[in-house]
TrEMBL record:
Cofactor note: Binds 1 pyridoxal phosphate per subunit.
Record EC number: 2.6.1.11
Binding-site list for pyridoxal 5'-phosphate: 91-92, 124, 209-212, 267
Taxonomy of the source species: Bacteria, Pseudomonadati, Pseudomonadota, Alphaproteobacteria, Acetobacterales
Organism: Dankookia rubra
Residue numbers of N6-(pyridoxal phosphate)lysine PTMs: 238
Alphabetically ordered keywords of this record: Amino-acid biosynthesis, Aminotransferase, Arginine biosynthesis, Cytoplasm, Pyridoxal phosphate, Transferase
Protein name: Acetylornithine aminotransferase
A GO biological-process term: L-arginine biosynthetic process
Length: 395
C-alpha cells in the first residue's frame, strides 16, 4: 500500500552504528530505525540469543507459561517502579493497554466516570484509533471519522493548564518525558515532579509513555528517573527488543491487579523469541558502565551540536532533547526534510520530527569517535542547505 514515503535506500547488513546498502554504500546510522536498534546492528549477543531461541521454540501463546517472559518481567520489575509487566508487540499496543488500565483502575474503584486521559499538544502515542485520539494531531486524525472520546489536550509544560483541565472525569495524565515525534522537546525535571504531585493531589494516575525515551536512551534506564519520580503505569517498546518487535506495560500492583484474566490479551505478546531478544538487550544495557557510557557520549555529542549551531546561524535555531535523543531545531528558511536528505547525501541517517526538527537517535553503543564523525557529516550537510544570499534578499 502507498503508506510510506520511503527513501530510495535498501540496507543488506549492519554492524554497530553502521549500515551498508545493497549497492555497497556505507551510512552512519543516527536514526536507529526510529530509536529502536538500541544496541546497534548485528550485536553478537542479541544475534546469538535470537538464533538459539528460534532453534528451540519461537511461539507457544499465552495459554501456557513462558519462562523467557517471566524472567524478563522480573528483571524489569527489579530495575523499575513496577510490580508486574504485560507484554505486547509495539508502542501503540503498549499505550492502548495503558489507556485501558487507567480506565479499568477507576471503574474497579467505583468511579467509572473517571475515563478521560489528559494528554499534551505535540504528543505522539501511536496510530491506532485510541492512540491517534490521545495524540490529537489533526493531520493524523483526518479521514478516520470522529476521534475516540476520552482524551483532553493541553499545552506541554503548563501546570496552570493542567490544573484547569482536571475535573471529576479525569482518569490520568499521559505524558512523554521527551516528546520525540513532536519535536524532541523534553519536559523539565521540575515539570515531571509537579505532574506527579498534581496526580497525587487529585487522586489520578500518572501514565508515562517511555516508548522512545526508555531503555537507556536518556542515560538512565528510564528517563523519568532523572526527576526522581515514579509513575503508576508506563509503556515501553522500541529499544526494549533491540529491533525485534516487543512492547510492554509496566505497572504498580494497584493498577495491574485489575487487568484480570480475560480483560486484556495478545496472541504474540511476550512470546519466547521476543523475550529472548528483550533479555539479551537488557543484558547489555544493565552491563557494568553501559549507562554511564551512554551519558558520557551524549554529553559529548550535545557539546558538539552546540558548536555546530554556532557555526551555522543561518540554518540552526537551537539544539534540544536529552541523552541520545537530540534535535536540531532549524530556522524556517530550511525544512527538516531538506536537512534529512542533505545528511543522507553525506552518509548520515537521521529522522525528521515535528516543529521543523532534525532528530538524532543513534544506537546507544556509539563511541565518541562516531559522534565526532556524525558532527563532521552534519557540518557538511548544513553547508549544503545554507540559504543563499539571493534567498535572503528575496525574503
Amino acid at each position: 500500500m502507498p503508506t510510506y514515503n520511503r527513501a530510495d535506500l535498501a540496507f543488506e547488513r549492519g554492524d554497530g552504528a553502521w549500515l551498508w546498502t545493497t549497492d555497497g554504500r556505507r551510512f552512519l546510522d543516527f536514526g536507529s530505525g526510529i530509536a529502536t536498534a538500541s544496541i546497534g546492528h548485528g550485536h553478537p549477543h542479541l544475534v546469538q540469543a535470537i538464533a538459539e531461541q528460534a532453534a528451540r521454540v519461537m511461539h507457544t501463546s499465552n495459554l501456557y507459561r513462558i519462562p523467557q517472559a517471566e524472567r524478563l518481567a522480573q528483571r524489569l520489575v527489579d530495575t523499575s517502579f513496577a510490580d508486574s509487566v504485560f507484554f505486547g508487540n509495539s508502542g501503540a499496543e503498549a499505550n492502548e493497554g495503558m489507556i485501558k488500565a487507567v480506565r479499568k483502575y477507576h471503574a474497579e474503584n467505583g468511579q467509572p466516570e473517571r475515563n478521560v486521559t489528559i494528554c499534551f499538544e505535540g504528543a505522539f502515542h501511536g496510530r491506532t484509533l485510541a492512540t491517534l485520539a490521545a495524540t490529537g494531531n489533526e493531520k493524523y486524525l483526518a479521514g478516520f471519522g470522529p476521534p475516540m472520546p476520552g482524551f483532553k489536550h493541553i499545552p506541554f509544560g503548563n501546570m496552570n493548564a493542567l490544573r484547569d483541565a482536571i475535573d471529576g472525569t479525569t482518569a490520568a495524565v499521559m505524558v512523554e518525558p521527551i516528546q520525540g515525534e513532536g519535536g524532541v522537546r523534553p519536559a523539565s525535571l521540575q515539570y515531571l515532579r509537579d505532574l506527579r504531585a498534581a496526580c497525587d493531589e487529585f487522586g489520578i494516575l500518572l501514565a508515562l509513555d517511555e516508548v522512545q525515551t526508555g531503555m537507556g536512551r536518556s542515560g538512565k534506564l528510564w528517563a523519568h528517573q532523572w526527576a526522581g519520580i515514579e509513575p503508576d503505569v508506563m509503556s515501553s517498546a522500541k529499544g526494549i527488543g533491540g529491533g525485534f518487535p516487543l512492547g510492554a506495560i509496566l505497572a504498580k500492583e494497584k493498577v495491574a491487579k485489575h487487568l484480570k484474566a480475560g480483560t486484556h490479551g495478545s496472541t504474540y505478546g511476550g512470546n519466547p523469541l521476543a523475550c529472548a531478544a528483550g533479555n539479551a538487550v537488557l543484558d547489555v544495557i544493565l552491563g557494568e558502565g553501559f549507562l554511564n557510557h551512554v551519558d558520557r557520549v551524549a554529553r559529548h555529542l550535545w557539546r558538539g551540536l552546540l558548536e555546530l549551531a554556532g557555526r551555522h546561524p543561518t540554518v540552526i535555531e537551537g539544539i534540544q532533547g536529552a541523552g541520545l535523543l537530540l534535535g536540531i531545531r532549524l530556522l524556517p528558511e530550511v525544512s527538516n526534510g531538506e536537512a534529512q536528505s542533505a545528511a543522507a547525501a553525506e552518509g548520515l541517517l537521521t529522522v525528521a520530527a515535528g516543529m521543523n526538527v532534525l532528530r538524532l537517535a543513534p544506537p546507544l553503543v556509539i563511541t565518541e569517535a562516531e559522534a565526532d564523525e556524525a558532527l563532521r557529516l552534519l557540518d557538511r550537510a548544513m553547508r549544503r542547505i545554507t540559504p543563499s544570499q539571493a534567498k535572503d534578499a528575496a525574503k
